[in-house]
Amino acid sequence: MVAGIAPLRGRRRELAELEALVSRARGGRSGALVLSGEAGVGKTALLDHLAARAAAHVRIERIVASQSEMELAYAGLHQLCGHMMGSAARLPAPQQEAIEVAFGLRSAAAPSPFLVGLALLGLLTEAAEERALLCVVDDAQWLDQASARALAFAARRLDAEGIALVLAMRQADPVFAGLPHRVVEGLGHDDACALLRLAVPGGLDLRVRDQLVAEARGNPLALRELPRALSPAQIAGGFTLTSSLPLESRIEQSLVVQLAPLPAQARLLLLLAAAEPTGDPGLLWRASAVLGLGPEAFDAAKDAEAFVVGTRVGFRHPLVRSAVYRAASPVDRRRVHAALADVTSAEHDPDRRAWHRASATLQPDEEVAADLEKSAVRARTRGGAAAAGAFLERAAELTPSPFRRGQRLIAAAEAKHDAGASDEALHLLGTADALPLTALQEALVVRLRARAGYALRRDRSGAQHLLDAARGLEGLDPVLARDTYIEALAAATYGGRLGDAEQVTAVAHAILGATPTAEGTDRARDLILRGQALLATEGQAAALPTLRRAQRAFLEQAPDFLELHWMWFASRAAQDLWDPAGLRALADRQVELARAEGVVTVLPIALSLLVLVQTIDGDLDAAEASCDEIDAIKEVTGNPLPPYGRLLLTAYRGQADEAERLAGRVRADGLARGEGHALSAANFSEAVLYNGLGRFTEAVASGRRELSYTHELNLAMRTLLELVEAAAHTGERALAEQALEQLAGVTRPVGTSYALAVLAMAEAQLSARDDAEKLFLDAIKRFEHERIPIWVGRCRLLYGEALNRQGRSAEAREQLRAAHQVLTACGVNGFAQRAADELRASGETLRVHAGGPTARLTEQELNVARLAREGLTNREIGARLFISAHTVEYHLRKVFVKLGIKRRTELKPALAGLTATASSV
């Protein structure tokens, strides 16, 4: 009765919320709830009550996380759903591989934590297929980092699977931020007094009662356990609490006092159980035999109601485990860990065995350290960089040789940096400084210190530190030196016009001095590195031959994972070379590689490049779907990538309010972070937007801002064409000619068909009648040959407008009809409307159709509908948007009802009204 009063008194609000969560799961919906509160406040009792009430209606999966397993990657996740792996074969192949590698069931490259999270969502969905599922994780503050992230990932994507997920922890961990959260507070005064009366039968001095209630602050466990440590005289009267320990420590102290009368062997058995969190009774029996603990020890521990041995070993409260472990002497802790290491299989559970051995070891021991190092390698393979760092750090502590200790400290620091703990990495590197290191190790320390420092500060010193590190690696590890050079150049060029030009030049000159000449190598990485350095120091003309060779090398050589590290520069070269085919190939390759390797942190950047390609190709619907995928990934990962793709897309769509809002956001963000590229993106997109809307004065204002920076190429040089068009329409001929001259300087030397088409289109707008006609037709022909429909449409629009101005209405209508048709088909609504307006001016009649029922779709419904329209299956859509296939099906049913359709084949025409705002009669 005492144990049951906590959830029954003063917990109506919490119980109602938990039961509503389960009720929704039974109805086919899903949700998650985080319960937080101090130790002993009643979270476990609430979970017990919930599980008892729900057992008849739902499937229940419940675990208690353990502090001793925090360093074992995916230990908590394996405990929760390891027995669900029979359903793994029904997951998409990348997810199945990711979860199997995470659980050590398969050897492969380290899985993306986000693929593991998506696989977890799939496993839970499969488990809930026949019956609603309740997943409960108690003491979630002790989850290993990898498991916590995977659970948070899945929890945020729950929607229509019939799953209820409850996580109880002492303080809400930031990894679960954004999930519904309920703080479990202490009982009110009346409920606390009632619980205390049950805990202390007989008389209780009122002063003692009031003091106990006040000190316990309504904590049910404190109210039950603290009086047990009092003598009868203290209970009767005159007792005062003088401890200044935190409440949790006082509760643990009380529990230790209660267990103190137990025989030594029983206390050692409890310590053994506390140190072995898997709850495997067989393991406990075998380890107790090693320690010489007989049945009497089990009987005494059970009689004290400290723990229960059944199908699993469990304590009557999670705090008992920590109280027992913390109160034990270091000698006894080492004894139980040694016993557990002896009985843990080196073949089937080598990592847990290694960790027990390390916990049992006091003096340096190379054999134990080597086992930990092997565990770190396995943790890396499973994607547990944080776990690898912990294994390696402990391995370093136990390494007798100073040289090997330094080696392991460096490896531990690198793992911690990769896990996002760059500050901890720097701390370990400080320790390594005092050890004897080889020249290569010293260079690695310099490199890692530069990378970790840049990750933490992102300041201007980062490029110089990375440059110093790259120089130090020359002659020691040329491959790593080039990787570091490219990072230094990226850090230096990141700021663009807002950065330090001298620093860019210094890094570029160092690269030129360290890399072979273009004639001396055919390696793609050497060529792209040298080409970008030449571009920074000597300009476009000097860099073009090397960039062309680098481009060919990247496209001809077989792709590998390392290309993701270099792809940004390779794709930038394709843009600077006005090579749409090369850009398409690189974009497709980068997205394919990022997806195959599960590198979701890189995928948004790769997809942004793909958005640019899809926009150029006139497939704005596909670009919209890619933007939706970027947004889904950013929501899950917190990736800070600015919305460059969405900004460009809204500009071409002619969505003025949204484009202006995004441009303002991108510009402010770029100024705050010192990123000049962001300013170019905002200016270019605004120029496109205003040209499409016929607001040429505003287009001039945006385009003019890029005139001084066209040497940076990329978006700055592409803005020149927009500026020519805007200035020509506003009659600012001198400005248009200035922009044309600069555009010729960056297109004519390249000489590709795309570059020459752009130049011809710009020259046509400033040429006399006959010359203009030839130039327009030449540009249209080249754009058609390069399969760039947007520019075909825009060029025909400009040509039609010019013909209209000459009074050649019939010829103008021919060009304008073609322009309107292609621009409408692409969804380039601003320019399509401009073509429609010009057609009306020439005497042609058009009617405008308002948007259809798509306006009633939610954003997520639109995301799902667009991908379904492209032919993706429910599972494929779920993988793209990081939701379950059940949720996809749920949203599609709503889409069909709202659009009045019955099958997927009807989605394309039904969604057409979303992008096409006008059509000709």
From TrEMBL:
<dbReference type="InterPro" id="IPR000792">
    <property type="entry name" value="Tscrpt_reg_LuxR_C"/>
</dbReference>
<dbReference type="InterPro" id="IPR016032">
    <property type="entry name" value="Sig_transdc_resp-reg_C-effctor"/>
</dbReference>
<dbReference type="InterPro" id="IPR041664">
    <property type="entry name" value="AAA_16"/>
</dbReference>
<dbReference type="InterPro" id="IPR011990">
    <property type="entry name" value="TPR-like_helical_dom_sf"/>
</dbReference>
<dbReference type="InterPro" id="IPR027417">
    <property type="entry name" value="P-loop_NTPase"/>
</dbReference>
<dbReference type="Pfam" id="PF00196">
    <property type="entry name" value="GerE"/>
</dbReference>
<feature type="domain" description="HTH luxR-type">
    <location>
        <begin position="850"/>
        <end position="915"/>
    </location>
</feature>
<dbReference type="InterPro" id="IPR036388">
    <property type="entry name" value="WH-like_DNA-bd_sf"/>
</dbReference>
<protein>
    <submittedName>
        <fullName>AAA family ATPase</fullName>
    </submittedName>
</protein>
<keyword id="KW-0067">ATP-binding</keyword>
<keyword id="KW-0547">Nucleotide-binding</keyword>
<dbReference type="Pfam" id="PF13191">
    <property type="entry name" value="AAA_16"/>
</dbReference>
